[in-house]
């Protein structure tokens, strides 16, 4: 059975690029356009990993991580931040909120897939 990964980014083109890479590697993909949209789509189904941008309208990625970690069904879901932010302070903030990895854009799909494969639980 395919593992499900949620991509949360306000850029449709980035969601498309990440989605193509993940689907190509055999994953099912759910897309969210920002934190609020992503939370609406987390309805109890199994999500094996979330890939989220940091800077988004309505709800940023770090707030999303905090909210997801409060949800019993998703408390242990690994979250990867995929962002242009590379400051240590933002990374620490993300880790403190519960993000497991930090990938800086522009990224290459094999690099992202390697991170995803390490974090997706069997």
Automatic annotation (TrEMBL):
Alphabetical list of SUPFAM superfamilies matching this protein: CheY-like (SSF52172)
| Family matches, as Pfam families | Response_reg (PF00072)
Which InterPro entries does UniProt cross-reference here? Bact_response_regulator (IPR050595), CheY-like_superfamily (IPR011006), Sig_transdc_resp-reg_receiver (IPR001789)
Q: Report the residues modified as 4-aspartylphosphate.
A: 53
Taking every annotated instance into account, which residue ranges of this chain make up the domain Response regulatory? 4-120
The family database entries (CDD domains) matched by this protein are listed as:
REC_CheY4-like
Instruction: Respond yes or no to whether keyword Calcium is given for this record.
Output: no
Q: GO annotations under biological process? A: phosphorelay signal transduction system
Q: Which domain of life is it from?
A: Bacteria
Task: Supply the alphabetized keyword list.
Answer: Phosphoprotein
Protein name (database record): Response regulator
- The source organism is Trinickia dinghuensis
